[in-house]
From TrEMBL:
Protein name per Swiss-Prot or TrEMBL: Bleomycin resistance protein
Family listed: Belongs to the bleomycin resistance protein family.
Record bears the keyword Iron-sulfur: no
One of the GO BP terms on file: response to antibiotic
Domain VOC: 1-114
Zinc found in the keyword field: no
Family matches, as InterPro entries: Bleomycin-R (IPR000335), Glyas_Bleomycin-R_OHBP_Dase (IPR029068), VOC_core (IPR037523)
Keywords attached to this entry: Antibiotic resistance
Length: 121
């Protein structure tokens, strides 16, 4: 919670502390977090850190610079430095500013915001 809410700016929509569960949101991005509790989780196999091998989560936020500043001030290492990338979406392109970091469990998080200049869609 210190990482997601304290550093990244998410807010708790609701939680069940007794179950180690929280539903959090930032802008239009919503995440469910659950702590590992023996016999109580949806765990399909053994867990080994880092948990996030082979997956990254795209998280759209209103302004990545706010998240980036907070993470940088806390000494969080980035996996990929901020850059503007163009992605084909439907018949057009969308330009986003993005960076990638790890959450405390090793999941890759790709924070992105729409770039100031968009190409036609």
């Amino acid at each position: 919670m210190a990482f997601w809410c304290g550093l990244c700016g998410f807010e708790i929509r609701y939680d069940r502390p007794e179950d180690g569960f929280a539903y959090i949101a930032l802008g239009g991005s919503h995440v469910m977090l659950e702590q590992e509790v023996a016999g109580e989780n949806w765990i399909a196999g053994s867990l080994e850190s880092p948990y996030g091998r082979g997956i990254n989560f795209q998280i759209e936020v209103p302004d990545i610079d706010v998240v980036l500043s907070s993470l940088t001030a806390a000494g969080i290492t980035l996996f990929r430095e901020p850059r503007t990338t163009s992605y084909r979406v439907g018949a057009g392109d969308v330009d986003v500013r993005e960076f990638i970091t790890f959450d405390p469990d090793g999941y890759l998080l790709r924070f992105q915001s729409l770039a100031k200049h968009q190409t036609a869609q």
